[in-house]
Write a structure and sequence with these properties.
Layout lengths: L1 E9 L2 H17 L4 H21 L3 E10 L2 E10 L7 H5 L11 H9 L1 E7 L3 E9 L9 H12 L6 H98 L7 H26 L8 E4 H12 L5 E5 L5 E4 L1 H17 L6 E10 L2 E8 L30 H11 L4 E4 L6 E8 L6
Parallel strand pairs: 7-9
Antiparallel strand pairs: 1-2, 2-3, 3-5, 4-5, 6-8, 9-10, 10-12, 11-12
Helix pairs in contact: 1-2, 1-6, 2-4, 6-7, 7-10, 8-9, 9-10
Length: 445
């Protein structure tokens, strides 16, 4: 339903000013916010000026349109011109005028709801709508009649005063828009900062996931090693245990038969098997703890340490051991170096097959590390064994029955904990050199 209010003929600039003023007044009467009042009046002024510029005369009618329990203020601007030839282009959402024409409609579309009908025969009709707030009291015919009476007795219009008033309202609207733009910029900056934080958080999460995956892979490897370690230990312990049980049975039979004179041999064999088992258990414990715990560091004179190890190992008289006299003093874990040199020297003694054994121990700085060498004149290590001797329980083909296979694994773990290198040099038939490096920064000046 439509309720007519007033009509104004558009014939000169004064009529455009009057249309602007009536639009502003009606928008105020209808309870529109100040910004909406200015937008509606500005859009009406733009369309009326289009009529004046392109056709020369026309008409504007103000109405209240009610539909679906809502109402709006309508300004219907019409003319009898030749119509708009590029109407579809003008109404396109992405259209922007490239010349002086079309700016009135372009600007008005931003301010109000705009509906246009245009043909060459009937001219152009432009409807401008602005919704009336739902909390506004009903606008009856009596109210509209009161508006009409008010307009009838309104004083004459000063174009200068109206234009000045219009400009002031536009300036106020621009200030509001500028404030809105500042708020939008602050919000955009805040969103940008949040995006940066989110990206940083995502990067941290990605790094944590990578670290977790690495830890999981390491744990899987450790668990596999533990399974293999436990299986091998339990298997290798069975042999000396079985021998001890057998010897115990023999001792029991000899005691029952009162053959005490025959006990010496099984007792000696029993002690030997117990020593084998004790050595195996000790090696397992050393291997399991090698390089694992934080051990207190102390000053270690390497020449003194190696001499102590040689006394402990009771080097056979047919062996000659040459130790460089200028070995450095280190601030390091003494137990680690004791295990390293004890294993390497005892292996060199144990597996030497020469009538006169020889062991040489030397050290020199090289590539930012201390380079140690333990050389022997033993039978050497076959090339096909050299890759495996550092693994637990891999003794090499020549020594499978005389070693637990953990000595070099203990050394390897200790050197690895220092993030240094450990390797072997041998032609497989004559002599072996074990090399390892140690942190140069642990040297005491």
């Amino acid at each position: 339903m439509k309720k007519d209010i007033i009509k104004i003929k558009i014939e000169n600039e004064l009529d455009v000013v009057l249309s602007y003023k009536r639009s502003l007044q009606l928008a105020q009467f209808c309870g529109l916010p100040l910004a909406s009042q200015t937008k509606f009046a500005t859009a009406v002024s733009e369309i009326c000026r289009n009529v004046l510029e392109h056709v020369g005369h026309g008409q504007i009618a103000f109405n209240i349109v009610e539909k679906d329990n809502s109402s709006c203020l309508e300004a219907l601007v019409s003319d009898r011109g030749r119509g708009i030839t590029n109407l579809e282009q003008l109404l396109d959402q992405n259209y922007q005028p490239l010349s002086n024409k079309g700016w009135g409609i372009y600007n008005s579309k931003k301010l109000v709801q705009l509906f246009i009908e245009s043909t060459g025969e009937k001219g152009t009709q432009v409807k401008l709508h602005k919704a009336i707030p739902p909390n506004q009291p009903p606008i009856s015919k009596a109210v509209i009649q009161g508006w009409i009476d008010y307009f009838t007795h309104d004083t004459s219009i000063s174009p200068y005063a109206e234009i000045k008033h219009q400009n002031m309202q536009l300036l106020e609207l621009l200030d509001q828009l500028r404030q809105k733009n500042l708020e939008v910029e602050e919000q955009l900056q805040e969103i940008k900062n949040l995006n940066i934080q989110l990206e940083a958080s995502n990067q941290e999460i990605h790094l944590l996931l990578q670290e977790r995956n690495k830890v999981n892979e390491k744990l899987t490897t450790i668990n596999q090693e533990l399974d293999k370690f436990a299986y091998t230990v339990s298997h290798d312990l069975k042999s000396p245990l079985f021998n001890i049980f057998s010897l115990a049975s023999v001792l029991e039979e000899e005691v029952q038969a009162n053959n005490l004179s025959d006990l010496a041999t099984p007792v000696s064999m029993l002690k030997e098997q117990a020593q084998v088992m004790e050595k195996f258990i000790s090696d397992v414990l050393e291997y399991s703890t090698a390089g694992r715990y934080n051990v207190a560091q102390s000053k270690v004179n390497l020449n003194a340490l190696i001499n102590k190890i040689l006394l402990f190992l009771a080097v056979p008289t047919h062996f000659e051991v040459e130790v460089a006299s200028d070995l450095p003093t280190l601030l390091t874990e003494e137990i680690y170096l004791q295990q390293v040199f004890s294993n390497l020297i005892s292996n060199a003694i144990k597996y030497n097959d020469k009538p006169k054994g020889r062991i040489q121990i030397s050290c020199h700085p090289e590539d930012g590390s201390l380079h140690f060498s333990v050389t022997d004149n033993g039978p050497g290590i076959p090339l096909h064994d050299q890759e495996n001797i550092f693994k637990p329980y891999q003794t090499g083909s020549k020594h499978r029955n005389t070693s637990t296979g953990l000595g070099l694994s203990i050394v390897s773990k200790i050197i690895e904990s220092k993030q240094k290198a450990f390797w072997v040099e041998s032609n497989g038939t004559n002599g072996t050199i074990f090399h390892f490096t140690w942190p140069l920064e642990e040297v005491v000046n």
